[in-house]
Design goal:
- The structure holds 2 protein chains of 2 kinds.
- Chain A is α/β, with parallel strands linked by helices.
- In chain A, 32% of the residues lie in helices and 18% in strands.
- Chain A is built from 12 helices and 14 strands.
- In chain A, the strands form 3 sheets. In chain A, strands 3-2-4-5-7-6-12 form a 7-stranded mixed sheet, sandwiched between helices. A 5-stranded mixed sheet of chain A has the order 9-11-10-13-14, with helices on both faces. Chain A has a two-stranded antiparallel ribbon with strand order 1-8.
- The longest helix of chain A is centred in the N-terminal third of the chain and has 15 residues.
- Chain A is globular.
- The N terminus and C terminus of chain A are likely disordered.
- Chain B has 2 domains: 310 residues, Thiamin diphosphate (ThDP)-binding fold, Pyr/PP domains (Rossmann fold, 3-Layer(aba) Sandwich); 35 residues.
- Chain B contains 15 helices and 7 strands.
- Chain B is α/β, with parallel strands linked by helices.
- In chain B, the strands form 2 sheets. A 5-stranded parallel sheet of chain B has the order 1-2-3-7-6, sandwiched between helices.
- The chains are: A alpha/beta, B alpha/beta.
- Chains A and B meet through α3, α4 and α5 of A and α8 and α9 of B.
- Chain B: This is Pyruvate dehydrogenase E1 component alpha subunit.
- Chain B: Its cofactor is thiamine diphosphate.
- Chain B: Pfam families: E1_dh (PF00676).
């Protein structure tokens, strides 16, 4: 298999012929449709995925086109959905499961951790589980409690799972096709506040399935590296733009795309060039994804670092009510504050390390 | 009269509305179904003698596996002594294309299905998580988290039906497992999808130490079936021919599109939960003695004697086969398994990640250093060297 180069997508690039503005939701829908059409083993299961087309309409029209045996409304029970998907995968099907919201995936956690992630290992490869668990995640949509969690750290800490999260419209298509084609279980985290983000794409000539484990570098720079994924990518790109305008810093932005497997090479290559790094995500900071990423960067780039690796994350609190979520989510100002503390004059002051300030 | 009725409002039933199913045909029999001692005849000639031979072997298997724990050859063994009728009949009722979903107490069912006993015991020996190829005998790996294998059985059965295959799944669970949420979700999915799956609850009276009365207030576990819209059946779990017949009927029905069934087999765990358990802390010896009088092997023996079929030849043949089986198992289990540490990274993903490749090479270096130390003059005391 030839490794594709890390993609450099730019919103300013001229749209090729045949393209039209497409939302991430439409790209995901098309990826599911194309997967159903390409492989009769693919079956979609979930709550409201049939007639309604999903609460976010990601499965819109699929039951009508492929029948309710291929796109099935299940009883309202997440452990049952994932548990039966395990049995279907054991029989040779390729289930794609939708969890309606991140926090509603928790009832399926035991199936995921005790069976989905381990079945290949338990059976020495005799029972691989080629199944995809799609989970809309993250905040920023004004959702009430249990509708805005970022649960990726739990999945990252579970060996045997791939953990994938697109941040762009094209990646949403390419990564989901790759996830469904994977012979390993994939937790596919969809940044729900980017469902309605748009980019030009020709859905009749869609992008190729993307390999896992290859981060993208949507913005190159020399001053510092912002390492992010999913819903925080547009925020980081905006922060990078502001940093150039206000301070003249050229920030490189890395979109991890797959959290597992982790692309150490792209991340470390960047940080060795810039010497400074900030990890940005919505999930809570303590024992969050950024802790692992900062540790890996420190191990891989120690002699190149001009400053400690900082994190800009959600606070270590239960996800707040929607009227307060703006204070919780990493924003441009908080990212710029962190970048400003990257020891530009080597005057690091202990005690002011990378904690986000309200 | 409801408020709506009071207003005179009489809504038409929505399209497709049907009256609820009459629950009566779904209800289990009031007394556990039995064949032994009722004057019934075997469904096929020789079936009961075959069950007898297999029960003798099953009992001997339980004794041998328990002995292997005392010899340090098994890390733990959850005995199914007293439950041999359920496990043997379960395996026999399956067709070759059917699938069995066992829990950790069901190695006898797995062995009766044809799996090599050494491979069936791998989990409990501790050399690997699952020692047999699930596809070869259509047996899922032994499941440890209670009832979590039940939705797998439903999904597999559903998939088989989607593929147009005449395949049924038989899922085994204990009385304690019926309290788990996965039991509920599995039965509900099975009934909604009309999946060809049969759930066999071996109600052995205890979930480790907790008796059934603290587990459920239902009239019986079999009654729970009605709430899901599937038939429930109650069977004497120590009456091997009865269990075999009830399971055969349910599996035939499932395979031919009749939907799932829940079968509660009343049995008793004669041994403690495992070799590490002390059953005297929670149950009386008199209770155990009473159940010994209703031992599945003894019940079948008495029936065959009544029928004049318990010949010296049959007894000797069954005993010889069981002893030979046990001796073979004992001998093979006394060989030290040598699981390969370098295989730890083999089946985490289809292709190892870069991070796992790095960890793998670190482990290989450690192993090489240990091997070198062990082979050096005066070596052999390095880390990882077996103290024995």
């Amino acid at each position: 298999m030839t490794a594709a180069p890390a993609s450099r997508t730019s919103p300013d690039a001229p749209a090729p012929a045949g393209t039209r503005p497409v939302t991430m939701a439409q790209a995901l829908n098309r990826a599911l449709r194309d997967a159903l059409a390409a492989d009769p083993a693919v079956h979609i299961l979930g709550e409201d995925v049939g007639t309604l087309g999903g609460v976010f309409r990601i499965t819109d029209g699929l039951a009508a086109e492929f029948g309710d045996r291929r796109c099935t409304d299940t009883p309202l029970a997440e452990a049952g959905i994932l548990g039966t998907a395990v049995g279907m995968a054991m029989y040779g099907l390729r289930p794609v499961v939708e969890m309606q919201f991140d926090a509603f995936a928790y009832p399926a956690f035991e199936q995921l951790v005790s069976h989905v992630s381990r079945m290949r290992n338990r059976t020495s490869g005799a029972l691989p589980l080629p199944l995809t668990v799609r989970i809309p995640y993250g905040g920023g949509i004004g959702g009430v409690e249990h509708h805005s969690d970022s649960s990726e750290a739990y999945y990252m800490a579970t060996p045997g799972l791939h953990v994938v999260t697109p941040a762009t419209v094209a990646d949403a298509y390419g990564l989901l096709r790759r996830a469904i084609a994977s012979d390993d279980p994939v937790v596919f985290l969809e940044p729900k506040r980017l469902y309605w983000s748009k980019a030009p794409l020709d859905l009749d000539q869609p992008p190729a399935a993307l390999p896992f484990g290859r981060a993208a570098v949507p913005r190159t720079g020399t001053s510092a590296t912002l390492i992010t994924y999913g819903p925080s990518l547009p925020v980081c790109l905006e922060a990078a733009e502001a940093a150039r305008a206000t301070e003249g810093w050229e920030l490189e932005v890395i979109d991890l795309r797959t959290l597992v497997p982790f692309d150490d090479d792209t991340v470390c290559d960047s940080v060795r060039r810039t010497g400074r790094a900030v990890v940005v995500h919505e999930a809570t900071g303590f024992a969050g994804p950024g802790a692992e990423i900062a540790a890996r960067v420190t191990e891989g780039c120690f002699h190149y670092l001009q400053a400690p690796v900082l994190r800009v994350t959600g606070f270590d609190i239960p996800y707040p009510p929607p009227m307060l979520e703006g204070h919780h989510l990493p924003g441009v100002d908080r990212i710029l504050d962190a970048v400003a503390r990257l020891q530009w004059e080597a005057d690091w002051i202990p005690g002011t390390e990378g904690r986000p300030h309200a | 009269m409801t408020v709506l009725e009071h207003t005179g409002y009489r809504p038409a039933p929505p399209p497709g509305w049907q009256p609820r199913t009459d629950p009566a045909p779904l209800l289990p029999e009031p007394e556990p179904y039995r064949l032994l001692g009722t004057g019934a005849e075997p469904a096929t000639p020789g079936l009961w003698r075959e069950l007898y031979r297999r029960l003798v072997l099953g009992r001997r298997y339980n004794e041998q596996a328990t002995a292997l724990t005392r010899q340090g050859r098994l890390a733990v063994y959850p005995s199914s002594a007293g439950q041999e009728a359920c496990q043997t009949a379960a395996a026999l009722a399956l067709r070759p294309d059917d699938w069995l979903f066992p829990s950790y107490r069901d190695t006898l069912a797995v062995v009766a299905r044809g799996v090599d006993p050494v491979q069936a015991l791998s989990l409990l020996r501790g050399d690997r998580h699952s020692g047999y190829d699930p596809h070869r005998h259509r047996v899922a790996p032994l499941c440890t988290p209670l009832a979590t294998q039940l939705p797998h059985a439903v999904g597999l059965a559903h998939a088989a039906r989607l593929c147009g295959d005449e395949v049924a799944a038989l899922a085994l669970v204990g009385d304690g497992g019926t309290s788990e949420g996965d039991f509920h979700e599995a039965l509900n999915f099975a009934a909604v999808w009309q999946a060809p799956v049969v759930f066999l609850v071996q109600n052995n009276g205890f979930a480790i130490s907790v008796p059934l009365a603290k587990q459920t207030a239902a009239p019986s576990i079999a009654h729970k079936a009605v709430g899901y819209g599937m038939p429930g059946r109650l069977v004497d779990g120590n009456d091997a021919p009865a269990v075999h017949q009830v399971l055969t009927e349910a599996l035939d029905r499932a395979r031919s599109g009749g939907g799932p069934a829940l079968i509660e087999a009343l049995t008793y765990r004669l041994d403690a939960h495992t070799n590490a358990d002390d059953a005297s802390r929670y149950r009386d010896e008199e209770e155990v003695a009473a159940w010994r009088g209703h031992d599945p092997l003894r019940l079948l023996e008495e029936e065959l004697r009544r029928r004049g079929e318990l010949t010296d030849e049959l007894v000797a043949e069954a005993r010889t086969a069981a002893e030979s089986f046990a001796a073979g198992l004992r001998e093979r289990m006394h060989a030290d398994p040598r699981p390969d540490a370098a295989s730890l990274f083999d089946h985490v993903y289809a292709e190892p990640t870069a991070q796992l490749r790095a960890q793998h090479s670190r482990l290989r270096a450690e192993l090489a250093a240990e091997a070198e130390a062990a082979s050096a003059p005066g070596g052999g005391t390095g880390p990882g060297r077996d103290a024995a």
